[in-house]
């Protein structure tokens, strides 16, 4: 296999606070191949958005980024300066945010905003940029593309705006797209359309994608690879099929029990829940971060937590228990 | 719906409409926007009516009418068989209470939890401060919060805890109907399940009736006993939860159900066949409002508005099932 387009080893993010250092992200590893979709799923505060901003070097100056390896398409991002990063962003790597109304500039037309990246990063004229903008608007399923170029963001619906954001991200044919909750603000019907579009286009153009979401349904349907994030760590990674069909980490299993599944969960029955709250990450964090809420927790969870590979391979989880369960506990029927 | 039932429905809407006059542009003429268009519904005690539909379909306007925050342009709302118009707002608030989506903006950040929860008691002049404190402590216990949070402020609490406070505030007046407008969509998955479990328990314990508005169909299927599907101000299909999810009739309901992303990795992203975007409610399409997006559109749908057809407790507004069309298409 060729070099991964993105390779991350031991990524750490520290935020100094009045009460001490907040270790928001602690030692994340993953590789992303060309054309592959990785979904990072986790609850609010798990550090999934910070991770994506760290890759784009869009973190606030306050936050300290450290990594043993952070290589994107042959470029060592830990050594890349502001100028190099500006050249990469919008060109080789692009981002799609949750709320298209706040990430589009209300004072510029759709056309201006679409053409900006291409005019900035490529030696093309306005006519050529305009042609490309129309081409991409059509590609993301916007009718009357020529006319849309002179419209302003407020004249478009939420679904259309998100299509514009996708078109914008694809203008320079990037290697990597990071989409942070791209469909959370949209109706379910529009969500399905936008996700289909993202999946089809990234596949067609062989673009790698990191999709960040809290929605397990989205993850299952979109991901090639899944990374489950909890309190700043990836607690389980693997192919979507393995993570959903045979979840190993107690947190992943807990999350999956929380959501009602049509046709499977009995209507009106009690849903599973994960008691407790995410622990403070200020100061020294040791042992398993999930142990305070874990039903499988034992004394050993305070110590070193190994990364394990499940029996079938390409599926890793971080737990002291070999099977993700306390010894002697039978799997419930 | 359930005729022959001796007690009147807890809540009934009869041909309720709400029309807003919208001005287009600074000098544009005013045009009517029918946010709620001739809606009739009835809820029996203990029912959970799930109300689903895309944004802009009129769900929240309907909720506001029930809460007395908007007056209907025409039609009647009845509580226990009595028209709301005859009651004043204060009496209405004793019987119908809301739980809103965002527990961050629906709680006053400058008030303590005690003040927030006891406000309804103070407004209605019920009890002295000692008995109000006692009531607050009891209701906190009911929603699963320790009584020490009484002196806390919303900023000191998590999203799930805040939503529990909002539920406590809604329940302290012992209402009959609770209008839940997207009560869990701002919450994390693990917290959402706790709030849903709590709402289920409270309903069983206090015989509450819910109007449950949500865009999350899996959640609606889980909690609701009946479901109404709304499109451009109309209820296009209404049925008991099993019938609606197992045998949806309206093509719009089918499309909504098809767009639910269950956590099943083999299925991929579904094609909902809903090509065109949601229409502008100021200029709704002619005939059946849904026809431009409908996968099973017929010639008649473009010109003639369909009538409601009832089959037991399952009603649908679609030409596929109309009497004139003779036979329902399977």
From TrEMBL, chain A:
It comes from Stappia taiwanensis. Its main location: membrane. The keyword Cell membrane applies. CDD domains: ABC_NikE_OppD_transporters. Transmembrane segments: none annotated. Belongs to the ABC transporter superfamily. InterPro entries: AAA+_ATPase, ABC_Ni/Peptide_Import, ABC_transporter-like_ATP-bd, Oligopep_ABC_C, P-loop_NTPase. GO terms for biological process: peptide transport; transmembrane transport. It holds the Pfam family ABC_tran. It is a peripheral membrane protein. This is ABC transporter ATP-binding protein. GO terms for molecular function: ATP binding; ATP hydrolysis activity. Residues 6-256 form the ABC transporter domain. It comes from the Bacteria. NCBIfam families: oligo_HPY. Keywords: ATP-binding, Cell membrane, Membrane, Nucleotide-binding, Transport. GO terms for cellular component: plasma membrane. Gene3D superfamilies: P-loop containing nucleotide triphosphate hydrolases. It is found in: Cell inner membrane.
From TrEMBL, chain B:
Gene3D superfamilies: P-loop containing nucleotide triphosphate hydrolases (3.40.50.300). Keywords: ATP-binding, Nucleotide-binding, Transport. It is a peripheral membrane protein. The keyword Metal-binding does not apply. GO terms for biological process: peptide transport; transmembrane transport. It comes from Stappia taiwanensis. InterPro entries: AAA+_ATPase, ABC_transp_ATP-bind, ABC_transporter-like_ATP-bd, ABC_transporter-like_CS, Oligopep_ABC_C, P-loop_NTPase. Belongs to the ABC transporter superfamily. This is ATP-binding cassette domain-containing protein. PROSITE patterns: ABC_TRANSPORTER_1, ABC_TRANSPORTER_2.
């Amino acid at each position: 296999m060729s070099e991964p387009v993105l390779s991350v080893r031991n990524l750490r993010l520290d935020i100094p606070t009045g009460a001490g250092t907040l270790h928001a992200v602690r030692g994340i590893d993953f590789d992303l191949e060309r054309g592959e979709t990785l979904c990072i799923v986790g609850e609010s505060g798990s550090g999934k958005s910070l991770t994506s901003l760290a890759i784009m070097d869009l973190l606030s100056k306050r936050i300290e980024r450290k990594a043993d390896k952070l290589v994107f398409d042959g470029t060592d991002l830990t050594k890349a300066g502001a100028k190099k990063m500006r050249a990469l962003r919008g060109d080789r790597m692009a981002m799609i945010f949750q709320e298209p109304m706040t990430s589009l500039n209300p004072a510029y037309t759709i056309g201006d905003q679409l053409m900006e990246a291409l005019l900035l990063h490529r030696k093309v004229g306005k006519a050529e940029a305009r042609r490309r903008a129309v081409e991409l608007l059509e590609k993301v399923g916007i009718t009357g593309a020529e006319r849309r170029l002179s419209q302003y963001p407020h004249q478009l619906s939420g679904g259309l705006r998100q299509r514009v954001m996708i078109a914008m991200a694809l203008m320079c044919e990037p290697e990597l797209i990071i989409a942070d909750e791209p469909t959370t603000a949209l109706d379910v019907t529009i969500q399905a359309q936008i996700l289909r579009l993202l999946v089809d286009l990234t596949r067609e153009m062989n673009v790698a994608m990191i999709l960040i979401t809290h929605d397990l349904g989205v993850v299952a349907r979109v991901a090639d690879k899944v990374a489950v994030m909890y309190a700043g760590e990836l607690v389980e990674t693997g192919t979507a099929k393995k993570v959903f069909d045979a979840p190993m980490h107690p947190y992943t299993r807990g999350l999956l029990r929380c959501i009602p599944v049509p046709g499977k969960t009995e209507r009106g029955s009690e849903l599973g829940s994960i008691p407790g709250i995410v622990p403070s990450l200020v100061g020294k964090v040791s042992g398993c971060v999930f142990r305070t809420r874990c039903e499988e927790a034992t004394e050993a969870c305070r110590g070193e937590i190994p990364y394990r590979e499940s029996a079938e391979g390409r599926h890793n989880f971080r737990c002291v228990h070999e099977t993700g369960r306390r010894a002697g506990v039978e799997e419930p029927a | 719906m359930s005729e022959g039932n001796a007690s009147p429905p807890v809540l009934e809407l009869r041909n309720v409409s709400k029309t807003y006059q919208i001005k287009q542009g600074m000098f544009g003429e005013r045009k009517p926007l029918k946010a709620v268009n001739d809606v009739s519904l009835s809820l029996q005690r203990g029912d959970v009516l799930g109300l689903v539909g895309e944004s802009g379909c009129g769900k929240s306007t309907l909720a506001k009418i029930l809460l007395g925050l908007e007056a209907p342009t025409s039609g009647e709302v009845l509580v226990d068989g009595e028209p709301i118009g005859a009651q004043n707002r204060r009496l209405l608030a004793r019987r119908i209470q809301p739980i809103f989506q965002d527990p961050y903006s629906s709680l006053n950040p400058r008030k303590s939890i005690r003040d927030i929860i006891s406000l309804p008691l103070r407004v209605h002049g019920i009890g002295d401060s000692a008995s109000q404190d006692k009531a607050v402590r009891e209701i906190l216990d009911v929603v699963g919060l320790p009584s020490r949070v009484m002196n806390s402020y919303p900023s000191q609490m998590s999203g799930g805890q805040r939503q529990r406070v909002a539920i406590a505030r809604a329940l302290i007046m012992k209402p009959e109907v609770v209008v839940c407008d997207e009560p869990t969509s701002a919450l994390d998955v693990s917290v959402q399940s706790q709030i849903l479990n709590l709402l289920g328990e409270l309903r069983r314990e206090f015989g509450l009736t819910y109007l449950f508005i949500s865009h999350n169909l899996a959640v609606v299927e889980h909690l609701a006993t009946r479901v109404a599907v709304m499109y451009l101000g109309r209820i296009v299909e209404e049925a008991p939860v099993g019938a609606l999810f197992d045998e949806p009739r309206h093509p719009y309901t089918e499309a909504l159900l098809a767009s639910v992303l269950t956590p099943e990795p083999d299925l991929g992203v579904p094609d909902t066949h809903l090509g065109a975007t949601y229409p502008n409610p100021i200029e709704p399409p002619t005939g059946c409002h849904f026809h431009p997006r409908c996968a099973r559109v017929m010639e008649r749908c473009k010109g003639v508005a369909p009538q409601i057809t009832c089959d037991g407790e399952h009603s649908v507004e679609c030409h596929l099932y109309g009497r004139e069309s003779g036979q329902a298409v399977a």
